[in-house]
Amino acid sequence: MSQFKPLQIGDCTIGGPLGSHTGLLVGSIFYDNHSIVTDAFSGSFNEEKAAGLIDRVNALAVQYGVQMAFDVIGSDPDAFSKFIRFTAERTSLPLLLNATEAEVRVAGLATAAELGVLGRCIFASLNEDTEDQELEALRRHRPAGVMILANDVGDPTPEGSCNMIEKYFRPMLDDIGVETPIVDLGVMDAPSVGIAMRGIQAVRERFGYPAGCAFSNCFPQWTGLSSLGREWVNLSLATALVCTRMAGGDFLHYGIIEKCRMAAHALGSAEVFLGFAAQEIDGHPLPDGHALLKMFKLAEAA
């Protein structure tokens, strides 16, 4: 088994022995069709509502004692820069720089460098379509974390993901000087969350890298569940979150930021169990403000 390689992202630490730190909860803001966005390409949005969502996540991270981050999404370089700047000025939590187009991701890196917040940013992500301009940008502007999408459609097994890391991503990471990536095990549909969980375990054991997935990706396709109503969707989403964390998931993408309270409560509950065992059995000192203490004071905090 490989030695664990924890990664510092701003004030958060992900990876390492299970339970020694909480998982990193990630929720998307400024995503496609987000109600707060007026025009995704001009970057116009409702600042009051956006600030309210950011404040909510900031408060939940403290209240529940879990690590949380913002997945900032953009479709246009200038708009993406506006979204990053607005979010970075209102939180000290980590930021994922996430966009579908290479030029937009590159603009995001440049903005983070200009703002001096690269030390709490994650580039999302390197994949099979990564372009040279992105690698060049990553050499110039090094974020705290670089995510890789280790999802081999030809071999979606845990072994296929590990082979993809070794044969495809490791040379790319060496080229830009990244020793420890964050590994995203792709999720295509609801049943494949189980395969992603096995992949997370395999990556952590073989490489020691922090690993996780966006289990939320499968829920829009789960039409039978959606017909039961939002409460039942959220129950299943919380189940996926806790199962993924118990499998060793270090980063946990719960989907749209509006679900942040549900996600914080579900993860906080799981971290009580994991943290107590890590402390009492493994001898790991838990970080200040850990969920183990915060979850028993929720009524007092409210």
UniProtKB/TrEMBL annotation:
Pfam families the UniProt entry points to: MtrH
Assigned EC number: 2.1.1.86
Record GO biological process: methylation
UniProt-recorded Gene Ontology molecular function terms: methyltransferase activity
Annotated family: Belongs to the MtrH family.
NCBIfam families: PRK00979.1-1
Designated name of the protein: Tetrahydromethanopterin S-methyltransferase subunit H
